[in-house]
Amino acid sequence: MLKNLKMIKTFINKNQIEELEKQKRVHLINSLGGFKSVSLVGTSDENGNENLAIFSSFFHIGANPPLIGLIFRPSPPERDTMRNILDTGFFTVNHINESIYKHAHQTSARYEKGISEFHVTGLKSEYKNGFHAPFVAESNIQLGVEFKEKIDISINSTTMIIGEITQIYIPENCLLDDGFIDLEKANTITCSGLDSYHKTIQLDRLSYAKPDKEITSLL
Amino acid sequence: MLKNLKMIKTFINKNQIEELEKQKRVHLINSLGGFKSVSLVGTSDENGNENLAIFSSFFHIGANPPLIGLIFRPSPPERDTMRNILDTGFFTVNHINESIYKHAHQTSARYEKGISEFHVTGLKSEYKNGFHAPFVAESNIQLGVEFKEKIDISINSTTMIIGEITQIYIPENCLLDDGFIDLEKANTITCSGLDSYHKTIQLDRLSYAKPDKEITSLL
């Protein structure tokens, strides 16, 4: 039997969601998505002007080829990160750790055109192995990503950008023999809602599930 | 200045990614996505046969209307969850907590057609407020979602399903005045890679970022 400490629940229906005050709805709906990957997306324009932006909408699309997706809110206003990706074809995804999450959060401020978030936050850009876009030097897990496809989501005028991971940088002591990365050892953190940051404690790694077979711990 | 305990990094390039043994690549690429929301998606077919499946590819698309996305791997084999969503128009998303993550993981086993993952795992289905699809009774945060749109991602033959959240159930003591949900109080957990589960410790909630203004803690 399951141990179930049942919590008393509040029910919010469709009409009540629609009638919520705007900022409250934004916090609520963003919280419902659970814990999310959060990362810094680095780009530069064709003249080398750098841009850095925090994203919590980065998700896995497939392993072969290695594809990820990002959701962009409607334009206008112009989205510098998206424009740079479309103009140059490249971006970086940099995991956020406990030392830099406040700097990362600060990149969400609306700076004037021409101001680099690297400059104002003090995060350091890093170029390597011929990749066009800047990596975040303080990030322990860094991905170089090539633009592959843009899909317009007409229902709410957002845009999905799909990219292929072509460069991977990971701390050498965090990569396990079976390909799994120990993200806790790499100090990667997670977020919830719009503004809450969390570190993690591993509960377990579980064996591949099969019918009629007990799951075991891989640790 | 940033405190930066620099880790020695391994570089994996595009050719090396392509040459990785398949299972190792799957673990690696799934790990790169960072910590992810993980939830149980409940559906039933037109005859009321229930299905329950674990997903770690659930992401926020927008708050107004409240939209979420899910990525499905290529068919065939037939994806019961997707077929039920397309046939009935409804599904539930149920957050996973520490008491049920092993049961949740077990739903990823390939059961024969006609076998309900509710039955084999012992998780209890729950119907309420006229919603067609089954909720997971042991889940503390439950969402009723209406199908809105199907987008085929041709680049790797996956499918994105977009749904609108129309029913929300949350523990009454977890909802803050500003709309933020305290997911830790609701015992929601996160996952990494294909098989690793983690609980969280909140570092901070940060104020809305503005240029030339110091970020403060909201706690």
Please summarize what this structure is:
Chains A, B: Keywords: Flavoprotein, FMN. Chain A contains five helices and 13 strands. Chain A has helices spanning 14-19, 22-32, 80-88, 101-106, 117-121, and strands spanning 9-13, 36-37, 39-44, 50-55, 58-63, 66-72, 90-95, 125-126, 135-136, 142-153, 158-171, 190-192, 196-205.
Mean pLDDT across all amino acids of chain A = 94
- The domain count of chain A comes to 1
By CATH reckoning, the class of chain A would read: Mainly Beta
DSSP, total strands of chain A: 13
Task: Find the biggest chain interface.
Answer: A-B, 129 and 129 residues
Which radius of gyration of chain A do the C-alpha atoms yield?
Answer: 19 Å
Helix/strand class of chain A: alpha+beta
End-to-end separation of chain A: 25 Å
> How are the strands ordered across the major sheet of chain A?
4-3-7-10-11-6-5
| Oligomeric category | homodimer
Q: In the CATH hierarchy, what is the architecture of chain A at level 2? A: Roll
